[in-house]
Amino acid sequence: MTRVAMLAGGVGAARFLDGLVRVVEPSDVTAIVNVGDDMEWSGLHISPDLDTVTYTLADLVNPETGWGLRGESRRTLDRLSELGGPDWFMIGDLDLATHLYRTHRLSQGDPLSAITRDFTARLGLECMITPVTDDRLRTVVGTDAGELAFQDYFVRRRASDPVHSLRFDGAESARPAPLVEEALNAADVIVIAPSNPFLSIDPLLSVPGVRELVIANRSKVAAVSPIIGGEAVKGPAADILQSLGHDVSALGVARLYDDLAEVFVLDDADAALASSIESETDMRVIVMPTLMTDVEAKMALASGTLEAARNVP
Amino acid sequence: MTRVAMLAGGVGAARFLDGLVRVVEPSDVTAIVNVGDDMEWSGLHISPDLDTVTYTLADLVNPETGWGLRGESRRTLDRLSELGGPDWFMIGDLDLATHLYRTHRLSQGDPLSAITRDFTARLGLECMITPVTDDRLRTVVGTDAGELAFQDYFVRRRASDPVHSLRFDGAESARPAPLVEEALNAADVIVIAPSNPFLSIDPLLSVPGVRELVIANRSKVAAVSPIIGGEAVKGPAADILQSLGHDVSALGVARLYDDLAEVFVLDDADAALASSIESETDMRVIVMPTLMTDVEAKMALASGTLEAARNVP
Q1: How do the domains of chain A map onto residue ranges?
Q2: What pLDDT score does A124 carry?
């Protein structure tokens, strides 16, 4: 039995989890998911990272995009567009049911973590998926155009603004959701997913107590680099490393994770960086293929990461 | 030029309006619509009567039901049902766009009347459609099962509970929407639509100032009976007349409208009641076909009603 807790963003984390639940008991896995991307949209509460992780593990995700649902349609969104309503955030007809369900439950006073538990159980998932907090947490992106709400920056403006600063609105008073502390303490391995360090992992760590718990458990923590060959597999991680003055490479990411993780998983393509990382940080570096191109690759990455994290030298 | 203001509920009012805008200039018509049926549903603001009136005049309404949209689908609702979400209120995929649009605008601070004006303009309507108030007004139905929110009574429980009392939550502090008072004062004819007197007309009149203005303009007011041959054309009007101790007939309705209207429009089938109504009330009774079975019937009813109201004896 290997209990695994993961700090998870969206697509990259979801793919890693999809491999992970095939190499350990799904019920031993807890995904602690970012909610800094959450938004209110026309009265609905949308939790993009929770949905991406859930849809992926339920084998419902659109494989083309890595988010949203397979076989999705946009009847409502097209009509909303005709009406002059907000149409810049893709919400499919089936996806909409998720948001309506969640918002209905929230309006009845249920916490997001309980709603997520019921939702994932109904989809047949055995692993635990929890928001990092039931409290309001919103990533705010500082740009030349001023401070932008996360989805405004990410979707509406296509992550095209150089990012000068990030803050996590609500973080100071947010409390970890019920399962979070127990999952981190009980885990045999804590994985920092190959997610955006600034937009996915930092908001998780901003919830008081979470960073401290990860640091306290550092000997069990493995971080997977989301940067391969100086580029992000997906999303604006490389641009943000640059605009915030970091090295645009796995080395730049490794420096950010030094106090959090014992093991750093580096892609084969970056093998040349291994010695720099090991000399500059206190992390052990493991080099392996990290591109999750198919199920086998996902499983191999999950197995290799767990093995490295458990192999205390 | 005949300026017409109408106190309007849902289906019956919408059908009358559909005839009315064909016999007078649509831009001379103002429909003042009930919002006591409005509800919050999974975070969305739903205004069933505004939508029924708008969809009907825009020739988008489902002719089978008299509400909802033609060619509607229920992809989102079916999925929501699978998820265990609230599925008792029929919300089609296209209809959903209306609610999303409205809720989005409301969340930006726009008043319901302005949103309705933009929405109806976008659908090409020339007549004015306004909620009776921009403030919160909710019909609460007293039954053996306790007080029920309107749609709980009407849709979820299929209007099957005997109604003992009605109240209009928010009425005391509600203010008429911007166009309402002007429309009532400027009208050559005010029509009380063949809507449910208790569930559609009373909530309109409960907004402070509206009843007083209708009474002040009584000489211009024509009310169309929603009861034909002792039965409601649609909905629970007959049951409510009975449970509240009124005569289950057009006479029962006429007694309710005596202080409001100069003219009472009675269906041919109820011609025998005309003399009783004229002797018991101060209204002039006009007998004509009131079943709005097709466009010609709607137009004839609208013309006949206007003519009667303008023929001050």
Answers
A1: 4-37+127-142+168-310
A2: 97
- Selected for mutation to probe chain A from B69, B75, B77, B107 (highest A CB count within 10 Å) is B75
The amino acid present at A291, given as its one-letter code, is L
Chain B contact set for A96 (CB, 8 A): 76, 79, 96
- A43·B97 Cβ contact <8 A: no
- How close, in Å, is residue A246 to chain B by CA atoms? 38
Whether A60 and chain B come into contact, CB under 8 Å, resolves to no
**Closest chain A CA to residue B92:** A76
Tens digits of per-residue pLDDT, B184-224? Answer: 999 999 999 999 999 999 999 999 999 999 999 999 999 99
CB contact under 8 A, B75 and A73: yes
A100 min Cα distance to partner chain B (Å) = 5
pLDDT tens-place string over residues A76-119:
999 999 999 999 999 999 999 999 999 999 999 999 999 999 99
Q: What is the pTM of this model?
A: 0.94
CB contact under 8 A, A76 and B80: no
Lowest mean pLDDT among B83-92, B114-123, B134-143: B83-92
CATH code for the part of the protein at A4-37+127-142+168-310: 3.40.50.10680
Four-way CATH pick for B4-141+169-310: 3.40.1170.60, 3.40.50.10680, 3.30.365.10, 3.40.50.300: 3.40.50.10680
Residue B312 has pLDDT above 80, yes or no: no
Q: Please give the interface size between A and B, counted as residue pairs whose CB atoms are below 8 Å apart.
A: 100
